[in-house]
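Quick log. Single chain, no ligands specified.
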Amino acid sequence: MKGAVYNNGVLAGHIEKDNMGKYIFTYDDLYLADKENPSVSLTLPRTQKEYRSDKLFSFFFGLLSEGVNKDIQCRLLKIDETDDFTRLLKTAGEDTIGAITVKQAEE
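-> predicted structure:
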């Protein structure tokens, strides 16, 4: 699975989970080419194109609902409560706190 990451509606990059369960965030070339575009977060600065992590990047984890809202989303969307990546792709496409949204990308 792969997600398209948008900053105020502009494609900033992609996030994916590989076959080994590692997370990869990659800035889009066009997004990086425009020096006016800000970093997606302070923890993912524009100083490099690709970031890798053994767990979901804390910035993206912060976009997820908690508590009762998490329970409701998981029940309605039939998502395993421990599957943070699927929750991100299914629930962070609109109405997030801040400028960043994540939508499931076509593969």
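The beta strands are 2-7, 10-17, 23-27, 50-53, 100-104.
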